[in-house]
Structure prediction request, 404 residues.
Amino acid sequence: MGTTKPNRGKRAESKDESKQRILAAAADMLREEGGGSFSVADVMARAGLTHGAFYSHFPDKDALIEAAFRAAFNYRESWLAAAEGAPAHERVPRLLEGYLNAKHRDRPAAGCAFAACAQEFAHGTAAQRRAFADEIETTLSRLTALLGGKDGNADTAACESEVIGLLSLCVGAMSLARAVEDPALSTRILEAALNYGRGPAA
Amino acid sequence: MGTTKPNRGKRAESKDESKQRILAAAADMLREEGGGSFSVADVMARAGLTHGAFYSHFPDKDALIEAAFRAAFNYRESWLAAAEGAPAHERVPRLLEGYLNAKHRDRPAAGCAFAACAQEFAHGTAAQRRAFADEIETTLSRLTALLGGKDGNADTAACESEVIGLLSLCVGAMSLARAVEDPALSTRILEAALNYGRGPAA
DNA sequence: AAACTCGCATGATAATCATCATGCGAATGT
DNA sequence: ACATTCGCATGATGATTATCATGCGAGTTT
Prediction:
């Protein structure tokens, strides 16, 4: 057999590509404006299609939001990757700096989906909330793996506190920094949270 | 002059009362569901009125949301009050416990407006974002006054970090805890953030 | 108490959407 | 080649909702 068994026909393949474009568009718009603010037609247009095609890809808008959320974790990957390359004691600062910066604040569409979606999902469907929990668990696992053996003490409870605290701090500071009108205050928030997370030592 | 110069007539007074009821209803619903989710008619009904009366109280829905947000800080007052009564070194734990608990998580309508509104206001009107910034400034001042002289070191920068970090941690953890479907995970988040905020010492 | 004000209710209006129904045309299978 | 399938576009439909227009009746003024 030639390549890895395409066997799907040009048509199915093109449908998959469409779906990917829809998901990518929705993932951006979800983080940029929030799921309540964009219309199905908006997303489809951004994906280069028209509204009618939507329902052959997703059962309804809520399902799109859930799927788009799950597809919106490209940021997490690069965030973690940047810290992986650092020596153990540099990792927390690296994570903080990779998150709590102006570029991240100003480009939510390319950023953390937790910070962009948390409030909205609090009133979302059960499936959406499950997706949120899933992604939180995944993120916590990754962070734990990254920071777990930080010092000699691999104490489970302490590590859980550190990992969850770090993520909460990041998400909270970003939420506040984005909601505030005054740019100077916004920057103060990011920088102060960065300091706080670095700990009293540094 | 008898009492404090009522001089306003029964009609004006009743209008003020109506406005207060509208604001109270909106403040609750804003924190419960978010401004995008309730309708003007919903709020008016909750205030015991009908939709038509709305526009003689507020110019539009955005203005209501801003005003309701500003009226939604009753929680902050009791939160701070509970810590004021404590000795200096007990105040941070007191604040963390007063915020990061299940009751607060489960009754957003009576809780912190930052945690409930941050994401929504990030895409709100300029007036709304200004209101958000104002309330943040006020909250930070209050926290600074409360924690400022905590130890001998009243270092301005260190205190700003602590105060902003604390608030960010609280808001972030609450946002995550509310967005997650799994109740066990939700509780883990609150408790871990609480530990994190207490510092490595305790 | 007649004239007037004004808070609030009822009843449009118009826009925005999610979702469904229909049809064309390209891809597929026989 | 012919019949079929299916992705996508066009065009409803119905619901929700912000906002405006109108009118009544209680309160206020002279």
Observations:
- Residues 11-12, 14-15, 18, 49-53, 56-57 of chain B lie near DNA strand C (CB under 10 Å from a C1').
- Residues 74-198 of chain B form a domain with the Tetracycline Repressor; domain 2 fold (CATH 1.10.357.10).
